[in-house]
Amino acid sequence: MVKSGKNFLNKGIIKLLILDALYDKEAHGYEIIKKISSKFKGIYEPSPGIIYPTLELLLDQELIGEKIENGKRVYYLTEKGKMVRDDGLNVLTSFLNKKIQPNERVKVIEQLYNIKNVIYEKLYELDEDKLRTLYEYLDELLQKIKRL
C-alpha cells in the first residue's frame, strides 16, 4: 500500500478528500485516514503527517470545525466546507476514477493487500503444522517473484 501522498496527490486533492470524508459524518483523524484509504480500495493510505497539518489548514480556513469527544478531537464540516466540497466534487471524482482504474499494477497491489488481510485474520487460528505450510507457500511465492 502506498503510504505517502508525495507525488501521488495533486495539489488541493487531499483537502477535497478530507472534506468529502467529513461530508456525511464527523470523524476523528484516524477515521478520516481510513475513509480516504477506502476510496482508493486500499492502494493508498494517507499518512498522519499529511492529514493532521491539512486538518489544521482547513480549520484555519473555517472549512471544518472541531470538538472534543471522549478525549479525542472530532472534526466536522462547516457550511463553507460543504460548499467547497460540492464545488470540487467533479474534480475529486475525476481524480479518483483516474487513480483507481483497474490495470495490472493496481491489481497486483490489491492482491497483496488481500493476501495480507487474510494472513492476519488466520495467523492466530492456525496450528503449528498449518503455520509451517503457510510459511512454505509464502517462501515459494517469494522465490518465484524474485525470478521474474
Shape: elongated
Total DSSP E strands? 2
Spans where pLDDT lies below 50 across 5 or more residues: 1-7
Q: Counting H and I runs of at least 4 residues, what is the number of helices?
A: 6
Going by CATH, the homologous superfamily of the largest domain would be Winged helix-like DNA-binding domain superfamily/Winged helix DNA-binding domain
Percent strand: 5-15%
Note the main sheet.
Answer: 2 strands, antiparallel
Strand-and-helix sequence, N→C?
A: HHHEEHHH
Please tell me the total number of domains: 2
| Class of secondary structure makeup | mainly alpha
The CATH architecture of the largest domain can be given as Orthogonal Bundle
- Mean pLDDT across every amino acid position: 86
Helix content: 55-70%
Calculate the terminal CA-CA distance, rounded to whole Å. 21 Å
What's the level 1 CATH class of the largest domain?
Answer: Mainly Alpha
Could you tell me the radius of gyration in angstroms?
A: 19 Å
The spatial strand order of the largest sheet comes to: 1-2
- In the CATH hierarchy, the third-tier topology of the largest domain is known as Arc Repressor Mutant, subunit A
Write the layout of secondary structure elements.
Layout: H1 13-21, H2 29-39, H3 48-60, E1 64-69, E2 72-77, H4 79-99, H5 104-122, H6 128-146
Antiparallel strand pairs: 1-2
Helix pairs in contact: 1-4, 2-3
Q: What features would you describe in this structure?
A:
By secondary structure, the chain is mainly alpha-helical. The protein folds into 2 domains: 13-99, Winged helix-like DNA-binding domain superfamily/Winged helix DNA-binding domain (Arc Repressor Mutant, subunit A, Orthogonal Bundle); 104-146. 62% of the residues lie in helices and 8% in strands. It is built from 6 helices and 2 strands. Strands 1-2 form a two-stranded antiparallel ribbon. Helix 1 packs across helix 4 and helix 2 packs across helix 3 (48-60). The longest helix has 21 residues, at 79-99. The relative contact order is 0.13.
